[in-house]
């Protein structure tokens, strides 16, 4: 078994190293000369990889402006899985988000990059960020369906169970929409108030979800 998994493990590590090298090179070049003046050729030369390799990992240089949101959501999903199964999905998501943000604050990665490391006035960046949140919401909906399904009893009546599943899916979709919209609101607020320290951002998450649960009273 080891003879099969070892090469696979090396390949995965190589992929991670290549992706990180491209991100690091792009980050340096963007800081030195700006995004518009930086070409994919310059990024690949700095990372010592071919342009063909670049396009195996990214569609354009603008994708390198965003943090790895897939990895970010994987971390959030893992934190969500640690929450009690009978906890309300929105409450569980809030706790998972705070846990992830607290871990990432020290390293300046993930959500911290979303808050302080992106020029959202650039249309290509805005479009990719919006698409990432759409994907995030879809994944979160599936997680909420699974979480809510575990708390629902099956009656054995096909029609009743189908109706219950439809209502459950609707609840999951609405809850995921609220969760992601609240997350985006916190990120937007934090970008507009960059001097707010990380601990205050965590409190802002708590306050924002409290507002969401209360129906956003003015």
Automatic annotation (TrEMBL):
Residues 39-58 bind DNA. InterPro entries: DNA-bd_HTH_TetR-type_CS (IPR023772), Homeodomain-like_sf (IPR009057), HTH-type_Tx_Regulator (IPR050624), HTH_TetR (IPR001647). PROSITE patterns: HTH_TETR_1, HTH_TETR_2. Residues 16-76 form the HTH tetR-type domain. One of its GO terms (molecular function) is DNA binding. It comes from the Bacteria. The keyword DNA-binding applies. Keywords: DNA-binding. Transmembrane segments: none annotated. This is TetR family transcriptional regulator. It comes from Quadrisphaera granulorum.
